Write the structure tokens for this entry.
Amino acid sequence: MADILVVVEHHEGVFKKNTLSVVSAAKALAGLTGGEVDALVLGDGVGAVADVAAGTGVRKVLLGEGAAFSKYLAVTTAGAVAQVVKAKGYGAVFAPASTFGKDFMPRLSGLLDAPLASDIVGLEKAGEALRVKRPMYAGNAIGTVELAGSPLLFTVRQTAFDPAAMGGAKAPVEKVSVTAEAVGTAFVSRQETKSERPELTEARVIVSAGRGIKAQENFKLVEELSDQLNAAIGASRAAVDAGWAPNDWQVGQTGKIVAPELYIALGISGAIQHLAGMKDSKVIVAINKDEEAPIFQVADYGLVADLFKAVPEMIAELKKLKSA
Amino acid sequence: MKILVAIKPVPNPDEKVKVKGDGSGIVLDNIKMVVNPFCEIAVEEALRIREKLSGEVVVVTVGPKESEQQVRTALAMGADRAVLVEAGRDLDSLAVAKVLAKVVADEQAELVLMGKQSVDDDNNQVGQILAAVLGWPQATFASKIEFAADNKKANVTREVDGGLETIEVALPAVVTTDLRLNEPRYASLPGIMKAKKKELKVVPLASLGVDTAPRVKVLSYAAPKQRAGGGRVADVAELVSKLKNEAKVL
């Protein structure tokens, strides 16, 4: 079939690793239907991003630059991707199911009148027909989906595909000309959640806190535990709604989907929406004083305890381990 | 300002749904249908904008006749009137967006508000597709909406990976709502009584002349892999020891 395009996510010129899983998903499709995988980088002065993308095993990298692309906007991004798809005749377009991909890919679907499968976790063939797997109902059902039309559009759940290797042989970078269509939209400002910690979607360990943490200042305890584990910090909706944690930390159905080696849930009851975001973690620890909390049903190691007593003990134990 | 709010009925999100034994669908018996939580936030925001700027709030849904119940809930919250485009439950996002585009044009709406995602299909698509079909700006995942003095533009703060982002959109525009935008009100008893008398126009899908042939079709459903959870430890010492020696994650 026709070739496949991956739209690379970056933030202010820094390549985002979620794109690696997207490259893997695109290659999985290429394995089923044929075609080559190319990457598209849009931005202004983002040659370095194209350079990283060139080492991920794609055939070539298309680089579309211009001052109007210096700040991401769904309207300009969807418009530019549509131009590239039409000019080069791509048969499929992939992007991460992050707030980047979720924002512009449906707009692209509308512009091209093309079918979009969101948040896919698998691709397979039934005879000659392509089938896509995607979670629905907060992950309580996995739908098998068929798409009709062209190009086929996909956003990819990062945790479902192993990341493509970085730093491989460099594919050529080809400049493409794209026009920015601002459609009455302008970037105003961005308020970054600053953190020295690993990103939630990339961390090996995540310590997450919920309603049981009771106050913003108590997140200090979460930070101390995270320091011992080099962990990222997450939160349940309750903690974010209460204003104790930034929105960027929310793990769940409509927040971040994570699957670290170790997920530690502190004072999180385990609502369906939260479980949807973390139940594919390799090892789950739950500390909660309510022994009936649903989080225990998915936990490998459940500890019924007051987190304000258990967490300091755990920090002490981990320090002991380190010095041993 | 004339605001159109698109809503969708979904199974009560606090109940865990099950897949039918033959994989043909979801077991919906005995599960209450409610207004999708993100759509409730959209209705609430529309009402608050009307309170400030005056105007009209029109609720629209695309689905079976039974959706009337959830539409009445939105009317009971305070929306002025409603349009129900009668269709099957299985329309895909492209079809729903094209149908909504017709209604938006008929109604001459100046702003469309809708939830960022319905918690059943979890697609997160219709608002953005609608904006593209209309050729309008879009602002997804809104946590704050502020209008310019002349009400011709709005600054929308969006919940994105990495923090918050604010963009300016010229109206008319499509804005999709996120959790922190507001806390929706409950319908009051007088509100519920009044809602019964509010205009609810039922429009047959066929009368709109929209191509709704499925482009994205769910063929079957399967239950996800179940986790063998439920393990317990007695104290922190046992927990740390097991994480180190059994799970080998420390």
